[in-house]
Design a protein that fits this description.
It contains 3 helices and 4 strands, in the order βααβββα. A 4-stranded antiparallel sheet has the order 1-3-4-2. This is Dynein light chain.
Length: about 110
């Protein structure tokens, strides 16, 4: 894992989702070398898809620009050392159905 604490740049996620994103990034960095950005992104994306439903996108790297449209409450950009991670749920994702609402609602409690 990279040494250092994650620094959140921008987010509109609930605190619990933010913490899960940071925890998953740390876990990914335990599994993969920092040079394996695609594998780190795949790991984080798949875990968020599994937990919060489909439509998540993850970009990992040391130098990239982005301009994305995302669902409200589903965006975080943070850095761990020199590695930047952008995680968001695209606005084109299917509307949450009843099976997804309890997972998101549970975080608000």
């Amino acid at each position: 894992m990279l040494e250092g604490k994650a620094v959140i740049g921008e987010t509109d996620m609930l605190q619990a989702m933010q913490q899960e994103a940071l925890d998953l990034a740390a876990k990914a960095l335990d599994f993969f070398d920092v040079t394996e950005a695609t594998e780190i992104a795949r790991f984080i994306k798949k875990e968020f898809d599994r937990t919060y439903g489909p439509g998540w996108q993850c970009i990992v790297g040391t130098d990239f620009g982005s301009f994305v449209t995302h669902c409200f409450g589903c965006f975080i950009y943070f850095r761990v050392g020199s590695l930047a991670i952008l995680l968001f749920r695209g606005s084109a994702a299917p509307e949450s159905d009843d099976t997804q609402l309890p997972k998101l609602e549970a975080l608000k409690a």
